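stage 2 :: seqdesign
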């Protein structure tokens, strides 16, 4: 056991990203394995938020045009900083809205039913908010979601087979919306292949990147995807309710957006206050109203760190540390009723481990009592996310030792096997 712990310490010593841990507010005595749900606060994010407050204090309304990060251009500025993380050009990315609001905007724009090509194709494993948004978009156009929303089925309840999705890409489908990384099993879909297959059939396609942005590299320009959207509070550590992001392929620039507002304007025309909109040229057009500046400000500091560390290096460590976690689970927890539900191959798994157990809800409560913050997803999933920028190999080792103890001592039996209100 001492040897195994020494090995974890050795991996920490060799970790090229280890210096970033000090940039975050980690809690002594607590192991945070939930950075895929809400990333931790970094000192740089705190600083950039305080800086924006200071600008408000100092400049009042002139903060829109003055200070180091004038608020009027902040959405575009952050889009530029995000572009390398999704493999896009600066003007193709903007920080605005939230994941769900951005899906509404993108569906309102890209879902153009014509004759019998009027269906939307999604899947049965996606996050409910995406499905609700697509259902309501169909209803707004007078279609019944029961007939017009197709949901590709999973063969095993965990993952999707790209072939099954492609089989549903018929000439009745106008739009495909899929997750990049599945929020429960952590599966990465083959976005390149799905995009090519959709386009070959005259169908537009977009991706929900909530669980992939900041965790894995994307090559949206190379893949030629039509659009993508995501939240910035998970792997990107933008803070609770942080403003979301979206990508639109420059091929579509100039297209009239579905939901307009005065921030959809060309910047230099916005204050002409005309009743005819001069729509912005790039993704700026996909904004609606005044940006939530204080909910964007932490991203300035956070994205600076991502660009400094580089998504390639982040992914390299993420693959290594999640593999290490899986290896330890298999060695230490064998015979305890656990099942690793995420795909094993590197190219098919995202930034978290999906650990299944029939007592998952109360095992999570026992983990919390032991100082480990996991993430429960009903009915039987414990999500564990060692984060490249702030989780150590030693913490991963400790987490598995704690899990082992919880099982051996049956500590979980103290708790009810039910989820909390927020799980
Ligand atoms: C977290 C998450 C969301 C959340 O959407 P919000 O609009 O930010 O509340 C949506 N989709 C997926 C796949 C998610 O993981």
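stage 2 :: out
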């Amino acid at each position: 056991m001492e040897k195994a712990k020494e090995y974890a310490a050795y991996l920490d010593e060799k970790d090229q990203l280890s210096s970033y841990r000090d940039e975050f507010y980690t809690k002594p005595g607590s192991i945070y394995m939930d950075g895929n749900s809400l990333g931790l606060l970094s000192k740089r994010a705190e600083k950039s938020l305080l800086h924006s407050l200071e600008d408000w204090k100092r400049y009042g309304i002139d903060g829109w045009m003055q200070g180091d990060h004038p608020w009027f251009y902040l959405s575009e500025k952050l889009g530029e900083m995000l572009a390398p993380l999704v493999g896009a050009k600066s003007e193709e990315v903007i920080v605005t809205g939230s994941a769900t609001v951005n899906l509404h905007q993108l569906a309102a724009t890209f879902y153009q039913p014509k004759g019998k090509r009027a269906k939307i194709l999604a899947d049965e494993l996606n996050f409910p908010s995406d499905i609700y948004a697509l259902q309501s978009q169909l209803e707004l156009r007078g279609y019944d979601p029961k007939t017009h929303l197709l949901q590709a089925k999973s063969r095993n309840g965990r993952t999707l087979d790209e072939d099954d999705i492609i089989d549903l890409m018929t000439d009745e489908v106008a739009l495909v919306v899929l997750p990049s990384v599945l929020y429960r099993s952590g599966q990465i879909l083959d976005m390149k292949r799905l995009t090519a297959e959709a386009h070959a059939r005259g169908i537009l396609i977009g991706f929900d990147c909530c669980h992939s942005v900041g965790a894995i590299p994307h090559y949206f320009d190379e893949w030629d995807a039509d659009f993508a959207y995501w939240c910035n509070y998970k792997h990107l550590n933008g803070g609770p309710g942080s403003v979301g992001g979206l990508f639109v392929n420059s091929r579509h620039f100039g297209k009239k957006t579905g939901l307009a507002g005065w921030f959809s304007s060309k910047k230099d025309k916005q204050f002409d206050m005309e009743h005819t909109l001069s729509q912005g040229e790039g993704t700026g057009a996909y904004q609606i109203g005044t940006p939530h500046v204080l909910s964007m400000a932490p991203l300035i500091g956070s994205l600076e760190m991502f660009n400094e560390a580089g998504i390639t290096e982040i992914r390299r460590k993420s693959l290594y540390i999640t593999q290490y976690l899986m290896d330890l689970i298999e060695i230490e927890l064998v015979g305890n009723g656990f099942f690793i539900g995420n795909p094993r191959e590197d190219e098919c798994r995202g930034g978290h481990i999906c650990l299944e157990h029939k007592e998952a809800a109360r095992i999570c409560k026992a983990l919390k009592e032991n100082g480990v913050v996991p993430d429960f997803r009903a009915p039987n999933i414990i999500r564990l996310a060692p984060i490249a920028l702030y989780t150590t190999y030693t913490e991963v080792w400790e987490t598995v030792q704690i899990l082992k103890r919880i099982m051996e001592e049956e500590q979980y039996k103290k708790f009810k096997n039910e989820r909390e209100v927020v799980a």
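stage 3 :: structure notes
- Residues 127 and 207 are 12 Å apart (CA to CA).
- DSSP finds 13 helices and 13 strands in the chain.
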